[in-house]
Design a protein that fits this description.
about 450 residues, Aspartate Aminotransferase, domain 2, 16 helices, alpha/beta, seven-stranded mixed β-sheet, Aspartate Aminotransferase, domain 1, 15 strands, four-stranded mixed β-sheet
C-alpha cells in the first residue's frame, strides 16, 4: 500500500473524487496539487508535471497567466457577484456576449449563460423542447446522441452521454434519448469496409433510426466535433457532410457541443468549422474562460430567440436560469481570454504546432502497445491494444490504460486514461520543446507499460 502523506490522508477523508474508483482511493493515493505555471503543475511534495490534458481539456492558456489574473482581480474589486435575473445586466456579461457573437461560425442573435458544460447542454435540450412547443409540435422531443459521446453528467446530459459507466446504477438513460453509431472508423469499421463505405453505412443507419422512431418525434441531434471523453474520436472528414442533409430533411436541429473543441483547440475558433458542418446552436464552456473561472453559454439563432419571446408572452416569463449563469468574474475572464486568443493568435499557434503533434502521435503508433493514434489540432489520443494486427483490445478489467497513465505520472506528466485510450490535450501555449518533452515521457511510460504487460503474461 502507498505510504500516504498527511495531506493525502486529509484529502481522502474529506473528498469524493469524480471519475475515480472510490474503493481504491487509499491504495492509489491522491495527487495533491499545490500550484501551476505555464504548462506545468507542482504537487504538495514539490514534484513538477507537464499537464498534458489542460486539466480537463480546458486550461488553454495554461496556469498563472498574469493578464488573466489581473482581469479577475479587477472584476472582483469592482463587482464580485451579480445576476442576470429580472432584466438585470452588467458590462462583462454584455461584452462577452458580443464577443461570442462576433467569433461564432454561424449568425447568433443572443447568448444564454450557465455555469458548466453540463448545464449548457441541459439547457440546449430544454430549449429544443420549448422551441417545438412554441411552434405547435409538442411530440417532437426526442434527442439523438451517439455511442461514446460525452455531453455532461446532469440527469439529461448523462443520458445523452453514450458511455455505460455514466448510466449503470444511475437509472439512466431517461426517456426521449436515443443513440446512433459512433463514427470511429478504426474500431467500428467492418472488415474490408473502406472509410467512405463506413460513412455511408452510418448515414444509412441514422436515416433508419429516424424513420423507426418517427421524424415527427425527433427534436435535435447533438454532437461533439471531436469526441473527447469517449476516447478522442475524430470522425472521418466526410462524416458530417453525409449526415447533415439527413437532419435537415427531417427538420431536426443540429446542436454542436463545443465545450472541448471551441476557442482554437482544433485549429479554428470552433470545431464545427474544422469538421465542416453548420449547426443551429452551439454550447461553449471550458476554454471560454481558459478555465480561470466556471462559465458556459448557449449561442442561440434568431428563430430560437423568437420562440423564447413568443412563449414568454404566452406564459408571462421565461422560466429558466442559473444563479451563477453569467457570473461577473467568469464573464470578465471570458472577455480577457478571447482578447488574448486574438492578440496572441492562438488559433495560428495551434495550426503551427499541429503537424508536430500529429507526427509524434503517428510515431507512437509504431509502439507495440499502440493500435491507433488520432488527432486534430492540439487534441489527440492513442488507443492501446493487446494485438495490433487484429485490433484486439485488452480486457477492460485489466486496466492497462490506467496502469500506463500511472507510469506516466511517475515520469512527471499527466494525461487521462479513458479505458485503454490515453487523451492528449495540452495547453495551447505549449512550446515545441515542452511538447516534445511530453511525448518523450509518454514514450517512456509506454515502454514501462509494455514491460508490465509482458510480466503479467498478457502478451506472448
Amino acid at each position: 500500500m502507498t505510504q500516504l502523506t498527511n495531506m493525502q490522508v486529509r484529502d481522502i477523508e474529506a473528498l469524493v473524487h469524480p471519475y475515480t474508483p472510490q474503493h481504491r482511493i487509499r491504495e492509489i493515493g491522491p495527487l495533491v496539487v499545490e500550484k501551476g505555471h505555464g504548462v506545468w503543475i507542482t504537487d504538495s511534495q514539490g514534484k513538477e508535471y507537464i499537464e498534458g490534458l489542460s486539466g480537463l481539456w480546458c486550461a488553454g492558456l495554461g496556469f498563472s497567466d498574469e493578464e488573466m489574473i489581473e482581469a479577475g482581480i479587477e472584476q472582483l474589486r469592482k463587482l464580485p457577484y451579480y445576476h442576470l435575473f429580472g432584466a438585470k445586466g452588467y458590462e462583462p456579461a454584455i461584452e462577452l456576449a458580443e464577443s461570442l457573437k462576433e467569433i461564432a461560425p454561424i449568425p447568433i442573435s443572443k447568448v444564454l449563460f450557465a455555469s458548466s458544460g453540463s448545464e449548457a447542454n441541459d439547457t440546449q435540450i430544454k430549449l429544443a423542447w420549448y422551441y417545438n412547443n412554441a411552434r405547435g409540435k409538442p411530440d417532437k422531443k426526442k434527442i439523438i446522441s451517439r455511442v461514446k459521446a460525452y455531453h455532461g453528467v446532469t440527469v439529461m446530459t448523462a443520458s445523452l452521454t453514450g458511455l455505460p459507466n455514466n448510466h449503470i446504477d444511475f437509472d439512466l438513460p431517461v426517456a426521449r434519448v436515443v443513440h446512433t453509431d459512433c463514427p470511429q472508423y478504426y474500431r467500428f469499421g467492418l472488415e474490408g469496409e473502406t472509410e467512405a463505405e463506413f460513412v455511408a453505412r452510418l448515414a444509412a443507419s441514422l436515416q433508419a433510426l429516424i424513420e423507426r422512431e418517427g421524424p415527427e418525434t425527433i427534436a435535435a441531434f447533438i454532437a461533439e466535433p471531436v469526441m473527447g471523453a469517449g476516447g478522442v474520436i475524430v470522425p472521418p472528414d466526410a462524416y458530417f457532410a453525409a449526415i447533415q442533409p439527413i437532419l435537415a430533411a427531417h427538420d431536426i436541429l443540429c446542436i454542436s457541443d463545443e465545450v472541448i473543441c471551441g476557442f482554437g483547440r482544433t485549429g479554428n475558433w470552433f470545431g464545427c468549422e474544422t469538421m465542416g458542418y453548420t449547426p443551429h446552436t452551439i454550447s461553449v464552456a471550458k476554454q471560454m474562460t481558459a478555465s480561470y473561472a466556471p462559465l458556459s453559454a448557449v449561442l442561440l439563432p434568431q428563430f430560437m430567440v423568437d420562440a423564447l419571446d413568443s412563449q414568454s408572452a404566452k406564459i408571462g416569463t421565461f422560466g429558466h436560469g442559473y444563479t451563477y449563469g453569467g457570473h461577473p468574474l467568469g464573464c470578465a475572464l471570458g472577455v480577457k481570454a478571447i482578447e488574448i486568443y486574438k492578440k496572441r493568435d492562438v488559433v495560428g499557434r495551434v495550426r503551427a504546432m499541429a503537424p508536430l503533434f500529429a507526427e509524434r502521435i503517428r510515431r507512437l503508433e509504431e509502439h507495440p502497445l499502440v493500435g491507433n493514434g488520432r488527432s486534430k489540432g492540439l487534441i489527440g489520443g492513442i488507443e492501446l491494444v493487446a494485438d495490433k494486427a487484429t485490433k484486439k483490445p485488452f480486457d477492460p478489467k485489466l486496466g492497462v490504460g490506467g496502469q500506463v497513465n500511472a507510469f506516466l505520472q511517475n515520469r512527471g506528466a499527466i494525461l487521462r486514461a479513458m479505458g485503454d485510450t490515453l487523451g492528449l490535450c495540452p495547453p495551447m501555449i505549449i512550446s515545441e520543446a515542452e511538447l516534445n518533452e511530453l511525448f518523450d515521457r509518454l514514450e517512456g511510460a509506454l515502454n514501462d507499460g509494455e514491460d508490465w504487460v509482458r510480466r503479467q503474461g498478457l502478451r506472448g
